[in-house]
Structure formats: structure tokens, C-alpha cells
Amino acid sequence: MSFSLSYSRMMSEGSRTPGQLHPGGTINDFTPLKGLKNIVPTIAQQLAEVGIVTVRDLKSVGVVNTYKRLKAQNPAITIPICYYLYALQGALEGVHWDDLSPEVARLWAETSLTNLNGDP
Questions:
Q1: Per-residue pLDDT tens for 45-76?
Q2: Which of 17, 39, 76, 95 has its CA 20 to 30 A from that of 89?
Q3: What count of other Cβ atoms lies within 10 Å of the Cβ of residue 27?
Q4: Do 64 and 110 meet the contact criterion of CB atoms below 8 Å apart?
């Protein structure tokens, strides 16, 4: 199933409460992304559609290449680059995307300004 929900709908699905890493407690490489901070059901479904379902999957593919896979899977849909980069990085760090360090936030902001439309 391809995703077609709008950005506003994804945002309305909410995020985990501050300090809540995962319903099961700690995060390891085998932790499913679904339910981690910033990974609302819509994003979890999108990630699963491109074969990324665990923390290990996301780490091995990388945040930028994960975005590229999502974009390649759904070329006609606008995918908010900066939000996805922040959300995926925050999920790996166990923090809300808005709580990333200023250095990481700046890196993703700069990355989102470059052309990320290449092949994954």
C-alpha cells in the first residue's frame, strides 16, 4: 500500500511523550521503529514499504538514504525532507525531532537544502 496521507495528518497522529523511548523500554538494533519517538503509524508504514522496520535497518541504510528510498517509492508525492531527516535521526537518538542538538539540526537543515533526489 502506498502512502498518501498529508503532512498535516501525519503530524496530527502525534509523537511519544517526552522521555518515552519505546513502549518496551530500551532501544537496541532489533527494536521495531514503529512506536519510537517521531515514528507515527503513517511513517512506520512508509518505512516498512521500503524494507526498513528495525533500528538496525535504519542505521545500516542511513537517514539520508532512507529518505531517498521513500522518495523513490513515491515519486509523485511531496515528502517533507527536513521533517523526515529530523524525525528519523530523533528516532535513532530517542528524542523528539525538535530536541536534536543544534549541530545535528544544522546538519540536517543543510542536507535538506542539497539535492536529495538521487538514487538510493
A1: 999 999 999 999 999 999 989 988 998 998 88
A2: 76
A3: 18
A4: no
- Residues 43 and 50 sit within 8 Å (Cβ to Cβ): no
d(CA 24, CA 83): 25
Give residue 34's domain range. Answer: 7-113
For residue 47, give the 3-state DSSP assignment.
Answer: helix
- CATH number of the domain where residue 73 is located: 1.10.150.20
119 found inside a domain: no
* CB contact set of 113 (below 8 Å; sequence gap of 6+): none
**Structural domains counted in the chain:** 1
Rounded CA separation 27/25 (Å): 7
Examine residue 118 and state whether it is found in any structural domain, yes or no.
no
Q: What does the angle CA 35 – CA 110 – CA 50 come to, to the nearest 5 degrees?
A: 40
**Residue carrying the nine cell digits 498529508:** 6
